[in-house]
Each structure stands twice: as structure tokens, then as C-alpha cells.
């Protein structure tokens, strides 16, 4: 062990420099892929590529353990070099903390099935939080430390050649004092400038484009800004308002693979067809008159977030199937979204579950268009990619149907 350490520490400066470079590239790949994974915009654009991107993110994320381990082997010596440099020590702590925090929460998210929703929910919060703190920090760190700003003799990580030439002063004319203050002035000016320049737009971009919980619209805002225009509004049942579930706990992230659609009485309709005895079509005025039920259930997304105790009011799927009369040849229930793109399916047997609902109200509110309203599917026992938003058609077919995300690599088995 001692021999190994000795060998590792040979050419210490160069090794530290290589480690720093590799770590830098790993962080760049993780940051880019991570931001693309969380941005709604890329959901529709990437399609299947999104699942590959997620795989890449996981593999590179696991690889980030390698530089961390190598660094820890060299840490004792590096630490000595950092004597009297508290900010650089602080930086080492921040970077190690970020990497280890990302890694642990990332592994939990990757293993969402074995760890269950509670752990994935918390892991996602930590992963996001570290990203919104860590990304600006790392961008700042890289910008203020690029070569043109920082002479080799100010860096603590440098190559052997730089170490050898250490003795030669770079600005012999300037006194160390004025040299230092000028350098740090430039550094703070550039760093501050960048923070001022991209800070607000970064925040606004977070609010507008990302489906993340930090800075995303509140539930009340989502309900208030509902762009659907349907009359009459359904009268919530007593169990819905106030919601018998006590009000949902957690935040929905607004997901869509298309631009978010909205509907009016003129553009909305609902139908059940295919292998049924009585194909049926409803307009909004007819649909609001259908008898509804109320249920309380949890909602889990595979990416790690959940919303608990939702009070949904709507028509049980079973009811539609019963009234339309499913033909003996039917095998699969296929669901269509009014976005024109998204579909999913259940086997006839799965479709008999009592808690599957064609939902119209959530916690006493007509489901807003951001959340898939006026009518969406709810399949509480399965991951939410089964819960088709803007549901407008149920078709019974005699073949299998592979849904939008399943076709792009999501598990056919969506059981929570
Ligand atoms: N039409 C449509 N339905 C959809 C999706 C979608 O992109 N389009 N995303 C699914 C996924 S993966 C999840 S987690 C939930 C998200 O619902 P929310 O946007 O109301 O939070 O909707 C599901 N239904
Ligand atoms: Mo999801």
C-alpha cells in the first residue's frame, strides 16, 4: 500500500492536472446531458434519444467515482500544498461534496424500482438542488480559472514543467501586492459580470422552460392560468370540494412531448370505438353530465417525483368499457391524447382495475390544460407515463399497442 501510494505520488503535479482535466470533462458531459434530460423542450425533440441520453448520463455519472477515488489517494499531499489557501480548500470540499452528493442521489434515482418512491422523491430533490447550486458554481470556477486569467504560478494544480519554472517570477516589475490585487480584481469583475449577465436569464429560463420544482409555477397558478375554455364547468361532488384526500401533497412537473394544447367546446370531443358493440361520441355538454366518482390516490413518475393523496373525480374506465360493450375479440385498450401524438395502452385485464379513472377534476378543480385537462387518464398503480394527458379517445383493438414512451425505451411493465 505504501509503495503504491509512493508510486501514485510520483509526478504529483502532472497527475493532479490530468485528474482535474478528466473530472472537468465528466462534469461537462453530466451537466449538458442532465440539463437536457430535465428540460421539457428536449422531451419531444429527442424522443427515443432521451432514453439513450439518460443511459449515458448514468454511465458517465458512475464513472465520476474514478477521479474522486484517485483524488482521495493524492489528497493528503494536495492538502499540504493548500496550506494558507482557505478558498482553495473550500473549493475542494465543494467539488467533492457535489460529486459525492450527485453520485449517491443519482444511484438512488437509477435504482428507483428497488428503492421505491420515497427514496427517489428525496434523491431527486437533492440531485436538483445540487445542480442549481453546483452548476453556477462550476461555471464560475471554470471561467475564473482559465489560463488567460490565471498565471501558472497562481494555480495550485500545475504540471511538472510549471513546477520547475516556479522560481522564475512572471511579473518581476510588479510587487506581489499590486500583482495580487489586480489579478483578483479582474477575477471578481469577470465572475461578477457573468453572474449579473446570465443570473436573471438563467433564473427566468429555469422558471419558464424547466419542469423542475424550484421556480416552477405553483398549483394555484397552474389552475388559474388554465387555457381551456369549456362551459359549463362541472359541479364538484361534495367529496371533491373540499377534497376528501385533504389536498394533494407534492408538485406536478408539467410534462409534454408536444407544445401544450388547449381546448374549447368547439374543439373538444371524446369517443370510445374499435371493437365495441356501441361506439359512442360525446361533446363537452354531454360529457359533463356523465355520472362521476371520487377517489384518492398517489401519482408517481418514473423520473423520481410523486404527488400524494390526489382527490380525483371522474368516470371509472370500467364504466366506459361496460357501457360500450367490449367485443370478445378485443385484447387491448388503446388511449389517445388530444395532442395528436401521445398514446398508451392497457391489457383488457389491467383495464378492469377499479381505480383507473377518466378524470375530470383534481382536488375540486377542473383539471387545467397544463396538467392534461379537461380530461386525463389516471392509472394509480402504474407509473404516470400510463396516465395519458388530454385523453380524447379510447379504442379497443385485437393487437398489442406499444405506447409513446415504451416505444422509446421505457419499461412495458409500468407497475409501481
Ligand atoms: N399526452 C401526454 N400525456 C402524458 C405525458 C406526455 O408527455 N404527453 N407524459 C406522461 C408522464 S411521463 C408523466 S410523469 C405524466 C405527467 O403529468 P403532469 O404533466 O400532469 O405532471 O403525464 C404522462 N402523460
Ligand atoms: Mo413520467
Automatic annotation (TrEMBL):
Gene3D superfamilies: Oxidoreductase, molybdopterin-binding domain, Transmembrane di-heme cytochromes, Chain C. InterPro entries: Di-haem_cyt_TM, OxRdtase_Mopterin-bd_dom, OxRdtase_Mopterin-bd_sf. GO terms for cellular component: membrane. Keywords: Membrane, Transmembrane, Transmembrane helix. The chain crosses the membrane at residues 21-44, 56-74, 90-112, 118-140. Coiled coil: none annotated. Residues 259-405 form the Oxidoreductase molybdopterin-binding domain. One of its GO terms (biological process) is respiratory electron transport chain. This is Oxidoreductase molybdopterin binding domain-containing protein. It comes from Paenibacillus catalpae.
Amino acid at each position: 500500500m505504501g509503495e503504491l501510494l509512493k508510486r501514485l505520488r510520483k509526478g504529483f503535479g502532472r497527475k493532479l492536472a490530468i485528474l482535474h482535466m478528466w473530472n472537468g470533462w465528466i462534469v461537462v458531459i453530466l451537466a449538458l446531458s442532465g440539463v437536457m434530460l430535465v428540460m421539457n423542450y428536449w422531451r419531444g425533440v429527442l424522443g427515443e434519444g432521451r432514453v439513450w441520453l439518460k443511459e449515458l448520463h448514468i454511465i458517465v455519472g458512475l464513472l465520476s467515482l474514478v477521479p474522486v477515488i484517485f483524488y482521495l489517494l493524492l489528497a493528503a499531499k494536495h492538502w499540504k500544498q493548500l496550506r494558507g489557501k482557505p478558498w482553495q480548500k473550500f473549493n475542494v470540499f465543494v467539488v467533492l461534496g457535489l460529486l459525492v452528493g450527485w453520485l449517491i442521489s443519482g444511484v438512488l434515482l437509477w435504482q428507483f424500482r428497488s428503492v421505491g418512491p420515497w427514496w427517489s422523491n428525496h434523491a431527486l430533490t437533492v440531485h436538483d438542488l445540487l445542480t442549481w447550486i453546483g452548476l453556477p458554481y462550476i461555471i464560475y470556477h471554470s471561467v475564473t480559472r482559465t489560463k488567460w486569467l490565471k498565471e501558472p504560478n497562481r494555480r495550485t494544480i500545475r504540471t511538472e514543467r510549471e513546477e520547475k519554472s516556479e522560481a522564475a517570477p512572471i511579473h518581476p516589475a510588479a510587487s506581489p501586492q499590486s500583482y495580487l490585487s489586480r489579478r483578483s480584481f479582474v477575477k471578481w469583475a469577470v465572475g461578477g459580470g457573468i453572474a449579473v449577465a446570465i443570473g436573471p436569464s438563467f433564473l427566468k429560463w429555469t422558471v419558464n422552460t424547466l419542469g423542475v420544482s424550484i421556480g416552477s409555477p405553483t398549483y394555484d397558478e397552474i389552475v388559474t392560468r388554465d387555457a381551456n375554455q369549456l362551459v359549463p364547468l362541472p359541479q364538484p361532488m361534495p367529496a371533491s370540494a373540499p377534497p376528501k384526500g385533504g389536498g394533494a401533497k407534492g408538485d406536478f412537473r408539467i410534462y409534454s412531448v408536444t407544445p401544450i394544447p388547449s381546448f374549447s367546446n368547439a374543439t373538444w370531443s371524446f369517443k370510445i370505438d374499435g371493437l365495441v358493440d356501441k361506439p359512442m361520441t360525446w361533446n363537452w355538454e354531454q360529457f359533463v353530465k356523465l355520472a362521476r366518482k371520487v377517489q384518492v390516490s398517489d401519482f408517481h413518475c418514473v423520473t423520481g417525483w410523486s404527488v400524494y393523496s390526489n382527490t380525483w373525480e371522474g368516470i371509472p374506465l370500467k364504466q366506459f368499457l361496460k357501457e360500450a360493450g367490449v367485443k370478445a375479440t378485443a385484447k387491448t385498450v388503446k388511449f389517445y391524447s388530444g395532442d395528436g401524438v401521445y398514446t398508451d395502452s392497457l391489457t383488457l385485464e389491467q383495464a378492469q382495475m377499479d381505480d383507473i379513472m377518466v378524470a375530470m377534476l383534481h382536488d375540486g378543480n377542473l383539471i387545467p390544460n397544463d396538467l392534461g385537462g379537461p380530461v386525463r387518464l389516471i392509472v394509480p398503480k402504474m407509473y404516470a407515463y400510463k396516465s395519458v394527458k388530454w385523453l380524447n379517445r379510447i379504442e379497443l383493438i385485437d393487437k398489442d399497442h406499444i405506447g409513446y414512451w415504451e416505444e422509446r425505451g421505457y419499461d412495458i411493465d409500468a407497475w409501481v
